[in-house]
TrEMBL record:
This is TRAP transporter large permease protein. Part of the tripartite ATP-independent periplasmic (TRAP) transport system. InterPro entries: DctM (IPR010656), TRAP_DctM (IPR004681). The chain crosses the membrane at residues 50-72, 84-106, 112-130, 137-158, 170-194, 214-233, 239-258, 270-292, 357-383, 395-415. Coiled coil: none annotated. The keyword Transmembrane helix applies.
Length: 425
């Protein structure tokens, strides 16, 4: 069955079916023609894959992000980012990266971050004289910070399939996200210095304070969520519901950007996004179940460890595998299918599950800016009116920086484990 599973899956994908259908049908056909189990079990496994308390957080976080996006937060976060880093060479590009980091801490989603920040910053960057390719490359790549900085939808999925504490995973993502943002900002400064792009004047303390005050309600959301989780006031799933109430209050009462009409539209779009993600989760759950019952994880572990037990070599191999998988699978599917296979092997060579979760997420974040299924590329195409090859070429130098960050985070586990160990010791 396993020999047939992957060829069937890729054949169905080539026919143009959605990923969740390709995953589910690959399992059904493999069982039907090569197994001795009744295929009726597949829908049952799909439902049980979604019947997970941790996954309840996903629709709430998606809705919270949408509420904050339409509630006028994007403009305020961008103004704050400009006040903080707009004075460096290429300050507008650096502010774009910082804005994505700020918004990612609210949305937890890569495409949502690209839409919210890119739709505002791309026209501003082009109007300021920045090259279109450089501008869209920075936006598409910085959008990958969305799932890495906590709270993160992808980390919730990883925690649910590996049994890793979601609270520890949220803490683990913060320093790696700051590291990646710092590397991208450094690139913006160096590139802009060579190109002679301008910068804004150094802001006064009053201007910085004013920008902080305007964005304070938005920045307060991750503080409340993470503070509530780490203090034990509520679980990550409960924190997602709190985020929705907070986002609705800020958008309707404080910023007064949300009315009944766009609230209904937001509920509709958040529902569709949530349904799409949970369908993928269901299909991937059935896929990973078939891998598990056939003993594929054990066989894979034996094969890998027969080659080498050196953690450096094992993690290098896993990074290559996950990057290639990210070319063809969206993050949710890839996490659900590969994490139960690879995480136990990583644990055997001494890699902490929390650390491995961050590594996994960064690998699949690279997949968000690589064809053929990189969602950030398609969102960036819509924003910039550029072709897929043009957007991908624009991202290539920054993909190299993402891979550099991946290597650093892989082999310096302290970056991922320091905060979780500090909070949960």
């Amino acid at each position: 069955m396993i020999t047939a599973l992957l060829p069937i899956f890729f054949a169905i994908l080539l026919l143009g079916l959605p990923i969740f259908a390709a995953l589910a049908f690959a399992v059904i056909l493999s069982i039907q023609f090569f197994g001795n189990t009744d295929p009726v079990i597949v829908p049952m496994r799909m439902f049980s894959g979604m019947n997970n308390f941790s996954l309840m957080a996903i629709p709430f976080f998606i809705l919270a992000a949408e509420l904050m996006r339409i509630g006028g937060l994007s403009d305020r976060l961008i103004d704050l980012a400009k006040a903080l880093v707009g004075w460096v060479p290429g300050g507008l590009a650096a502010a774009t990266v910082l804005s994505c980091l700020f918004f990612g801490s609210i949305s937890g989603s890569s495409p949502a971050t690209v839409v919210a920040i890119g739709s505002i910053m791309f026209p501003a960057l082009v109007a300021a004289g920045y090259d279109k390719r450089f501008a869209i490359g920075v936006i598409a790549t910085a959008g990958t910070l969305g799932p890495i900085v906590p709270p993160s939808i992808a980390l919730i999925i990883y925690g649910s399939v590996t049994g890793t504490s979601v609270g520890r995973l949220f803490a683990a993502g913060l320093l790696p996200a700051i590291l990646i943002a710092s590397i991208l900002i450094a690139y913006c400064i160096v590139y802009s210095s060579f190109k002679g792009y301008g910068r804004s004047t150094f802001p006064s303390l009053r201007e910085i304070g004013s920008a902080f005050k305007a964005a304070a309600w938005g920045l307060g959301l991750p503080v409340i969520l993470l503070g509530g989780i780490y203090s034990g006031v509520f679980t990550p799933t409960e924190s997602a519901a709190v985020a929705c109430i907070y986002g609705l209050f800020v958008g309707m009462v404080v910023y007064r950007k949300i009315d009944v009409k766009n609230l209904l539209s937001t509920l509709n779009s958040a529902g569709l996004m949530s349904a799409s993600l949970l369908l993928i989760t269901a299909g991937a759950s059935a896929f990973s179940w078939l891998l598990a019952i056939t003993g594929a994880p054990t066989q894979l572990a034996s094969e890998v460890l027969s080659w080498t037990e050196d953690p450096i070599q094992v993690m290098a191999l896993f990074n290559v595998v996950m990057i290639i998988a990210g070319f063809f699978l969206d993050s949710a599917s890839a996490i659900i299918v590969l994490s139960p296979l690879l995480q136990p092997i990583a644990a055997q060579v001494g890699v902490d599950s929390t650390h491995f979760g961050v590594i996994t997420l960064i690998n699949f974040s690279v997949g968000m800016i690589t064809p053929p299924v990189g969602l950030n590329l398609f969102v960036a195409m819509a924003i910039s009116k550029m072709t897929l090859p043009e957007v991908f070429k624009a991202c290539l130098p920054l993909i190299g920086l993402m891979l550099l960050s991946l290597v650093i985070i892989t082999y310096v586990p302290w970056i991922s484990t320091y905060l979780p160990d500090l909070i949960y010791r």
